[in-house]
Structures are given as structure tokens and as C-alpha cells.
Amino acid sequence: MSQTERSVLNYIRHALGNHLSIPILWYISHHDKATYEQIRGYIIYVTNTDLKQALSELVTYHVLNDKQGVYTFTKDGQALVPIIDEIFQWAQTTAKKS
Predict the structure, then answer these.
(1) Domain count, the chain
(2) DSSP assignments along 39-91, one per residue
């Protein structure tokens, strides 16, 4: 594996590696925007600290914008929407086999 590949994979791990990232991104992708309270109501069994950290990481890595407590995708983050949908479809299909 090249150094460039390692760097890219490391970036992905940091930007999207939080266990809450996919549920957060899926929720926002289906609502265009969301407040902390809306996301908190959607994702159950999560601490406020963990959710705040996940949102902060997504903002830091330019996946989401935080404008006065309303989260939306950045232009770069918007490119993840089809990927999030594919992951969701994969999970629906494979979960039935488990």
C-alpha cells in the first residue's frame, strides 16, 4: 500500500470512522437539514457527549455545515449521499440473511 493510499484511508477513518457517522448522515440525507434535537431523537441509546463529538468531527472534516445549530451537507459532503444510500441498501439485504 502506498503512502498516499494510507493517507486517504486514514482521512476516511477520521472523517467517517465514528460509529454514529452513518446514521447521522443517513438521517440528514433524507431530511436535507436537521437540528441536534432532531438527530438526537432519531438516534436512540447515545449519549449527548458522543453525539456532539460525532457532529463536531463531521463538521471538522467538511462533511457537514453547522449554521446556528442546523446541520446540512457541505458541497463535498453531498457527494456521500449516494454512498450512504448504497450502504443502507446493502444492510437491508444482508441483514435479512443473518
Answers:
(1) 1
(2) HHHHS-S--HHHHHHHHHHHHHTTSEEEETTEEEE-HHHHTTHHHHHHHHHHH
